[in-house]
UniProtKB/TrEMBL annotation:
Transmembrane segments: none
Transcription regulator PadR C-terminal domain boundaries: 91-163
Domain Transcription regulator PadR N-terminal: 7-77
Organism: Nonomuraea gerenzanensis
Protein name: Transcriptional regulator, PadR family
Pfam families, sorted: PadR (PF03551), Vir_act_alpha_C (PF10400)
InterPro entries from the UniProt entry: Tscrpt_reg_PadR_C (IPR018309), Tscrpt_reg_PadR_N (IPR005149), WH-like_DNA-bd_sf (IPR036388), WH_DNA-bd_sf (IPR036390)
């Protein structure tokens, strides 16, 4: 996930200080990807270095306020208009684990069973979070995305189990 672009998107709505960006980012994503304040300021420093944001002085309480630059708006527009490719995502650790279990003679059924339990617990937590959500459309869409991914993982685990059983006959 691009924290960099998330902060640019928030700054496109007007100047903000670091803590404010952190709170708004977490509210928009349903606190699914919590940010520590150090990560926010490190990202702001890099965005400033790259000319995508600029300091705009301090607010009445002395907090450093940042604003998006024209180059930042262009980068944000490019990001929104570019689809996310499968190759841009990190490697799938679960697929690698199952493949290594198959290749290494590990009990694949046990690996699948352990993962299925964890995925089911995550799915239940996400469903509860969705019911309790009060953060608006952005939060709901993030939670829906995570729920759909967990459901897809359950289906893939079912497939892995079926194929493994069929192969062992």
């Amino acid at each position: 996930m691009s924290i960099r672009h998330g902060l640019l998107a928030l700054l496109s709505g007007g100047p903000r200080y670091g803590y404010q960006l952190r709170v708004e980012f977490e509210a928009s994503t349903g606190a699914t990807w919590p940010l520590n304040i150090g990560q926010v300021y490190t990202t702001l420093s890099r965005l400033e270095r790259d000319g995508l944001v600029a300091p705009e002085g301090a607010d009445e309480q002395g907090r450093a306020v940042y604003t998006i630059t024209e180059a930042g708006r262009e980068e944000l527009a490019r990001w929104f208009s570019t689809p996310v490719a499968q190759t841009d995502r990190p490697r799938d650790e679960l697929a690698i684990k199952v493949a290594m279990a198959v290749a290494g003679g590990v009990d694949v059924a046990e690996v699948i069973h352990t993962q299925r339990g964890a995925t089911m617990r995550a799915l239940q937590e996400l469903t509860r979070a969705k019911r309790a959500a009060t953060g608006g459309l952005a939060q709901r869409l993030v939670l829906d995305s995570l729920i759909f991914k967990a459901e897809a993982e359950q289906r893939w685990l079912d497939h892995c189990e079926a194929v493994s059983k069929e192969k062992n006959r």
